[in-house]
Amino acid sequence: MTLRFGPFELDEAGRALIHAQREVALQPRVFDLLVYLTRNRDRVVTKEELLDTLWPDVTVTDNSLQRAVSMLRGVLRKGGMDGAIRNMPGRGYRFCIDGGSELRVAAPETTDKQVPDVGARAQRAAAVQAWDEAAALFEAADTIQPLDGADLHQWALALQCTGKADAALPILARAVSAHTKAGNVSLAVIDAVTLSCLHFERGQAAIAKGWLARAEDWASEIEDPATTALTLWMKSKVAAFDGEPEQALSLADAAYSTVRHRDAVGIEALSLAYRGFYRLCLGDTRAGLADQDLAATMALSSGDIDPIVGGILYCNILWAARMFGDWARADQWTLGYQKYCTESGMELTGSCQLHRSEVLGVRGSLGEALSRIQDSLARLTSDAPWAIGDANRVLADVQAAIGNDDAALEAYEKAYALGWCPEPGHAMLLLERGEAEAAYTSLERSLIGKTWWTLQRRGILFAHLALAAAHTGRHEQALELIEELSGSPDRWPMPSIRALTNEAQSVLANVRDEYDSALRHLHLARQLWSSIDGRVQAVRLRLRIAKLQLAHDDVRGASAEIHAAQLAAGELGSRKFEAACAALRREVDTRTRGRAA
Question: Which residues contact 359 (CB under 8 A, 6 or more apart)?
């Protein structure tokens, strides 16, 4: 992609910044900074996001970013454009153009001399993953002479990689038609399945099934393992959507078996990842995680997977990690997904922002989590509207952690209205507000049915139900749930689930006046959350520990917990936790003065 702003021209594919018809020397990371800011010029980019993107897998300080920004401003100052890099205090940086200056994508020229070259330039741009430029060039070439099926496929891929999947739909339909006319059946199947997948993501199941039926019909005419596996994989997604997880697993397994070691790494990795996903949903956790790890390793090591397939693969693994409460794993994969999108020249999708925002919310980076989930909601309308309900659930979780209870309840209600389960965050907020019975009822309702959503979240929902049962006096049920979860370490090994069962055991021990046991279980729960950097839950539990200690006159112990919680609450930016810390601190001070008197 080539962008022009003021007297500058940014040639992303050629990695060059031109000023006064001369290339300006830029350090690689400074060039990457300019590219990333211009790509995301419609929003503020946080410092954390820039550090993660520009220095992946390297620990650096804010000073490194500030130096890069300063160097970039120095270069842009030559053209009077240093003010284009805006510092948004407390938020990050944004690329902004004022006044008469204009930022625009350089239009591909189509003079008679250059007409024969436009298609070749489009193909070269796609080959180096300069997707914006490729899309513009393919469009220009198509106005001169209708593109063939292969170029239409590449054009649609470029549009998808730039976040314009809606615009890709008619291009893909044309590609299918061109392939069938040319007798390229396997290519027609690939694009028909892509159409099915895109319509499926938009919640248009009937249209998706129609395209899949066409793809399956064509695939039956040829003997091509990769094509057969692709249709089986898509059928597994439909089966899961229809509430048939066993059939989905069988289809994904058949897809993987069909293409295994057949030199088709993309569909091999994809079918294996989904087999792992369905195994996880059906309780075979160890085998499911092994499948997904192997699929990711295959994909990353091959270097021969197109960005869309890679994105679907990453997204599937991330959904599984988030839905199972496997936050350490989710953190690793979201960073990998973000890096993958950047290196592939792809726009960060709404799903990518959704994944990252929930992980950041659990870890306590609440400001950035809120910014990302709001960006996700804006993107999901075209990316994956079916996930808007889940995005509202995550938005509510973040608002609840900050202390915006009314905004959180409104977002939970919207998630539910959109057909999505708002649990377990909704129930935890109700528990906090003293509405334990409502929390219990809401969690029980969330466990009804056999949808993939319910099956994959069963462990985390059971753990929260055990906690709600303990709080509502349903002690036998709480014990049964704790025993089921604790007695199946292979199925539910996640620290988050073990933390919740320890918290429920603490509630039960406290009812029996077993103070030492209640305190021990709370400490274990807090340690488990801390082990996966779940700072929001760790602070919440420190406050519970302090309250329990004060109830048993351990003022010194309570004071230590309050101090630790107060330090963390300030870093999180949680008004709720800061207020709770202040209230407990006043109680400690009152007791201390009373003893002194």
Answer: 322, 327, 330, 331, 334
* Residues 120/154, Cβ–Cβ less than 8 Å: no
Which of 64-78, 151-165, 220-234, 458-472 is predicted least confidently?
64-78
Share of the chain above pLDDT 90, in %: 48
Q: 130-135+142-396 has which fold? A: 1.25.40
Q: Among residues 319, 334, 307, which one has the least CA distance to residue 281?
A: 319
The angle at the Cα of 69, spanning 66 to 72, to the nearest 5 degrees, equals: 150
Residue 223's Cβ-count burial label (10 Å; 0-12, 13-18, 19+) is exposed
One-letter identity of residue 147: L
CB count within 10 Å of CB 441 equals: 15
Quote the CA–CA distance of 156 and 166 in Å, as a whole number: 10
Whole-prediction pTM? 0.69
Question: Tokens 């709404």 identify what position?
Answer: 350
Q: In the predicted model, is pLDDT for residue 299 greater than 80?
A: no
Q: Is the pLDDT of residue 200 over 60?
A: yes
- Pairing of β 8-11 and β 16-19: antiparallel
Instruction: Please report, in angstroms and rounded to a whole number, the separation of the first and last CA atoms in the chain.
Output: 74
Alpha-carbon 545 to chain mean position: 32
CATH class of the 2-105 domain in this structure = mainly alpha
CATH 1.10.10.10 domain locations along the chain: 2-105
Contact 277, 320 (CB under 8 A): yes
Read off the tokens for 320.
């599984």
Cβ contacts of 356-361, under 8 Å, gap ≥ 24? 357/394, 357/398, 358/322, 358/330, 358/394, 358/397, 359/322, 359/327, 359/330, 359/331, 359/334, 361/394, 361/397, 361/398, 361/401, 361/536
Residue 105: per-residue pLDDT: 55
pLDDT band at 596 (very low <50, low <70, confident <90, very high): low
Least Cα distance to 121 among 104, 105, 94, 139 occurs for 139
Q: For residue 545, give the H/E element and its range.
A: helix 535-551
Rg over alpha carbons for the chain, rounded to the nearest Å, is: 27
Q: Report whether pLDDT(535) > 70.
A: yes
Which residues contact residue 27 at a Cβ distance below 8 angstroms, ignoring those fewer than 6 apart?
A: 68, 71
Our separate counts of H helices and E strands in the chain read: 29, 7
In the chain, which segments carry CATH 1.25.40.10? 130-135+142-396
User: What integer is the mean pLDDT of 404-418?
Assistant: 95
Give the integer Cα–Cα distance in Å for 26 and 371: 30
Q: How far apart are CA 207 and CA 359, in angstroms?
A: 33
- Residue 163 DSSP symbol: T
